[in-house]
Amino acid sequence: MELPEAKQKFIEAWGKLGSEWGINRTMAQVHALLLITPGELTTEEIMAQLSISRGNANMTLRDLMGWGLVEKKHRPGERKEYFYADKDTWNIARQVAKERRRRELEPVLKLLDELSTVEGDAKNEEFRTFNKTVTDINKLAKNVDRTFETMLKAEENWFWGSILKVFK
């Protein structure tokens, strides 16, 4: 397989994987393109390589910058904006975990904490079932949150070493 075909397959696979994780396919494809590009690309270059519209490219790049996965650079004397992605997979994983935590886990934790304060008759089976379920899910969610926190603070080798010890 030649490099152009391999690059296209990677971009398509990353796009499919992204959509499986709940990320827009185009967003994942733009990220993939920037990951495998040694330097920076302009919006026009991204549009041309992925056959997407300017509006789609601009919105996608803005989203990727919001996720902290892409940065914008300006070159002195040029009006064009250049975009690049961090190539360090550990940094990418930590940034995605940080955003998923902020967007998904934190709101759930807030809701579960609120639901944990519901008062009721301990003799009522419906209340006991509700209370136990909320309490158990809250414990699990807090453990997941602690794992995210550990991942965000940890160095890659230490984190994976610690995880692997759990499975031995």
Q: Would you identify the CATH H-level superfamily of the largest domain?
A: Winged helix-like DNA-binding domain superfamily/Winged helix DNA-binding domain
Structural class: mainly alpha
In whole angstroms, how far apart are the ends? 38 Å
In total, the number of domains comes to 2
Task: Summarize the SSE layout with pairings.
Layout lengths: L2 H18 L4 H11 L5 E2 H8 L3 H13 L3 E5 L6 E5 L3 H27 L9 H29 L2 H12 L1
Antiparallel strand pairs: 1-3, 2-3
Helix pairs in contact: 1-2, 2-4, 3-4, 5-6
Provide a quick synopsis of the model.
With 168 residues, the protein is mainly alpha-helical. It contains 7 helices and 3 strands, in the order H-H-E-H-H-E-E-H-H-H. The protein folds into 2 domains: 3-85, Orthogonal Bundle (Arc Repressor Mutant, subunit A); 89-167.
Give a written overview of the molecule.
The structure is a single chain. This protein is mainly alpha-helical and 168 residues long. The chain folds into 2 domains: 3-85, Orthogonal Bundle (Arc Repressor Mutant, subunit A); 89-167. Helices cover 70% and strands 7% of the residues. It is built from 7 helices and 3 strands; from the N terminus they run H-H-E-H-H-E-E-H-H-H. A 3-stranded antiparallel β-sheet has the order 1-3-2. Strand 2 (70-74) and strand 3 (81-85) form a beta hairpin.
Which features does this protein show?
mainly alpha; 3 strands; elongated; 168 residues; three-stranded antiparallel β-sheet; Arc Repressor Mutant, subunit A; 7 helices; 70% helix
